[in-house]
Write a structure and sequence with these properties.
By secondary structure, this protein is mainly beta. It has 2 helices and 11 strands; from the N terminus they run βαββββββαββββ.
Length: about 160
């Protein structure tokens, strides 16, 4: 039987840390500004019964994509890392398996660490086998009065996630 939590502190939107393969994607980790934990659904199955249709639980979980917004540095290193990753995936898909390189992995786990109000680890979401699917547009503009740093959205698909 589930019990009510005794922790009365609420989760803060700034209490998190993003980790990814630092040896291949150090700038994505460092410049991550926001991350949207994906929704999970279990579509029901329609079952006809006499003159009505009833629904039963679906057979699998469907995960939406992870979306991470990254702050761009002047050299656009994080952007270039993501673009190179996407480009490499397309190039690998068009090569024969025996000719594929071993430079960087095609997939990478992404870890979202949630922190308490005292910056202590409370939970980790580990998204397994992440692959980038989109790299958002970069908007340059001259008609702004305040300095607004440029961000870009990156989306990833993944196989599943663990909560530890």
């Amino acid at each position: 039987m589930a019990t009510l939590t005794t922790n009365q502190n609420f989760l803060q939107p700034t209490g998190y840390k993003v980790q990814i393969d630092r040896s291949n994607y150090p700038n994505l980790e460092f410049f991550a500004q926001t991350i949207a934990h994906p929704s999970v659904s279990n579509p029901s199955i329609e079952v006809p019964y006499k003159r009505v249709t009833t629904h039963i639980s679906g057979e699998k979980l469907i995960y939406d994509e992870i979306s991470i917004e990254i702050l761009l540095d002047e050299d656009m290193k994080a952007y270039q890392e993501m673009h190179d990753w996407l480009k490499r995936l397309v190039e690998e898909a068009n090569q024969m398996p025996s000719r594929r390189g071993i430079a960087a992995p095609s997939t990478s786990d992404i870890t979202l660490t949630l922190l308490s109000s005292h910056n202590n680890l409370t939970k980790k979401f580990i998204y397994r086998d992440c692959v980038p699917t989109s790299l958002g547009s970069v908007n340059f503009k001259t008609n702004t009065t305040d300095v607004e740093f440029i961000t870009v959205a990156v989306s990833f698909t993944f196989s599943y996630f663990d909560i530890v």
